[in-house]
Amino acid sequence: GDSVTQMEGPVTLSEEAFLTINCTYTATGYPSLFWYVQYPGEGLQLLLKATKADDKGSNKGFEATYRKETTSFHLEKGSVQVSDSAVYFCALSARETSGSRLTFGEGTQLTVNP
Amino acid sequence: EAGVAQSPRYKIIEKRQSVAFWCNPISGHATLYWYQQILGQGPKLLIQFQNNGVVDDSQLPKDRFSAERLKGVDSTLKIQPAKLEDSAVYLCASSPSLGGGEQYFGPGTRLTVT
User: Fold this and answer.
1) Phi/psi of residue A41, each to 5°?
2) CB distance A43–B56 less than 8 Å?
3) Could you tell me the pLDDT band of residue B99, with boundaries at 50, 70 and 90?
4) A8 at the B interface (CB within 8 A)?
5) Residues of A in contact with B48 (CB under 8 A)
6) Taking chain A, what is the end-to-end CA distance rounded to the nearest angstrom?
7) pLDDT tens digits for range B54-92
8) A96 shares contact with chain B (CB less than 8 Å)
9) CA A53 vs CA A48, A68, A96, B24: distances in Å
10) pLDDT, tens digit, for every residue of A37-67?
11) Which of B48, B91, B104 lies closest to A101 in CB terms?
């Protein structure tokens, strides 16, 4: 079945450091890929998405590129801020096999210190 | 535009008791989802509705969980009887269609079963 694997957390960085959170997936066909973010006390919010191979999703300084050859969708940000502290979830939607259901990774807790 | 509303935000019950959660999706959104998020894990789909019909309930423990979406708008999720392992955050999400695009999440209901 479909699955998403994220790098283990938690991740602790200093402000202005470079961030990478790894995400790989297993799915049949051509899934859409997403990064969702969950700030403390809030619901999940879509951060960015990509719907086909080589697409780059970007938002709020975050970027991720859909790599079909490595089945990956790694999240990056060049300079993190304290306000980026949150839990980040990689997810996929494989319409051919599971409709529009989202399959999530385990989540990666990011803490950014001033 | 109002977001996805859920109530209650928190609920504590004893095992073998019953509990119900309510969700009101974004106005006009045809598709509604219920996810279960156990602490330290990513959300897992329980059930998906398109208008007032069930699209996917393959991961719903039907011996104790039930859900309905009368009139194709708001929805209730019920657990009867609850078990300790049902302690989790129950998330409701909605999307405009079955197209596999962005889902909009509510703040969730945190259930503790003692």
Assistant:
1) 75, 5
2) no
3) low
4) no
5) 99-101
6) 41
7) 989 999 999 999 999 988 899 999 999 999 999 999 999
8) no
9) 15, 6, 16, 35
10) 999 888 899 999 999 999 999 999 999 999 9
11) B48
Distance CA A92, CA A58 (A): 16
CA B90 to CA A15: how far, in whole Å? 33
Question: Phi, psi at residue B70, to the nearest 5°?
Answer: -70, 140
According to DSSP, the residues that pair with B67 across neighbouring strands are B77
At A110, is the secondary structure helix, strand, or coil?
Answer: strand
**Between A and B, how many CB-CB pairs are < 8 A?**
63
Place of tokens 């269609």: B97
SS3 per residue for chain B:
CCCCEEECCEEEECCCCCEEEEEECCCCCCEEEEEEECCCCCCEEEEEEECCEEEECCCCCCCCEEEECHHHCCEEEEECCCCHHHCEEEEEEEECCCCCCCCEECCCEEEEEC
What is the pLDDT, as a whole number, of residue B98?
64
| Contact: A99, B100; criterion CB under 8 Å | yes
Chain A: nearest CA to B80, how far in angstroms?
Answer: 25
